[in-house]
Amino acid sequence: MARYFYSKYVPNPLSELDLESLLERLRDFFLDSGFQGQFYPGEPSPHSLQALYRALAHVLAGDDRLPEEWRRALAEFDDEYPDGSLPEDVQDFLDRLIQRLVQENYLTVDQQASGDGQGAQSEADPSRARFRLTEKSIDYLGHKSLRDILSAVGRSSFGNHRVRELSTGVESDWHSRPYEYGDNLNLDVNATLMNAIQREGLQVPLNLEYSDLMVHQTEHRSSCATVIMLDCSHSMILYGEDRFTPAKKVTLALAHMIRTQYPEDTLKVVLFHDSAEEVPMQQVASIQVGPYHTNTFEGFRQARRILMNQKNDLRQIIMVTDGKPSALTLPNGQVYKNSFGLDPYILSETFKEAANCRRSGILINTFMLARDYYLVQFVQRIAQISQGKAYLTSVDNLAEHVLMDFKANKTRVVH
Predict the structure, then answer these.
(1) Total domains present in the chain
(2) Are residues 302 and 355 in the same domain?
(3) Could you tell me which residues come within 8 angstroms of residue 369 by beta carbon, excluding any fewer than 6 positions away?
């Protein structure tokens, strides 16, 4: 007679893990700004596969869905992958988890394998391999950042950009007005008939004249081209506070909001440091600060060039910084630097470029993450020249100020 043995069903931990939830738990790791590196200079690159294994071990060590012995092994992981410290089944679990992230298009892995010098490839070295976030991951992180920001300020939707100028469109929100040549013929039938009746009395047939025509008015919906200028000088991670990671989070949140709610808008990102350059949105998450100065002049100039190629109704620069301008690109291409105080020459050229932006119809709003008196004066002067605004913010309320201001800037007349 056959015998049957039954054991407790143990579900596959890999199938129970939600990858989006895992991404959210890894968000701070993915958006690393280099802040921790100043305290632990020997740590692996935050974009290496080695660092990813370490981050996964950290977040999964407390996951109750994993066997207890696995969680204990992950908690004791000694950060030196691979050295045989993890049990084989736990190591295989992490390998398959990263493979699943790649297969579902959340990550791409660049295997920089070491060769023998003759073109032959050996087994990939995890300490040299690098991973990159895909556009799918970037958009998800932006969605989560936007959700967190909106829940913090008690708002669920921003709607569309609005300006005080009224136009004739499809949706009727305002009183009607006489038809003018060139208007969309969004006819207000009731008002048109009333004009004809008042002129000729109630009779059939009712003769309509050109002056009787009335059209509905709607709020004018404008499109906006925005450049976010991110200061990535070294001061953004100094003084015991990480200021760059919140700046990246608000950039991703703004990008997601524009893509989903303002599809007619454009958003570009310019980093400014010793110089300035535009970076693709897909690279924002992996940007780290460096030992740089602050070339605000070049940031304005690069942003102005980008915005002048856009055909939107509104153009604006959102600058996030915490430091004084300490570098300037000279006409010959060389960079003049002065780390001590506010150099009068650097200031004057920076103010001239802000004035150029204003003459080009570009609004500059500055979000200053410092409250030193001389820095406050600097951003107030920029706001005065560009007719924009200067906000003294902190890492706690930066996102709220940026998103609220982005919406509020649409309430102006477009000429």
Answers:
(1) 3
(2) yes
(3) 236, 243, 320, 321, 322, 393, 394, 395, 398
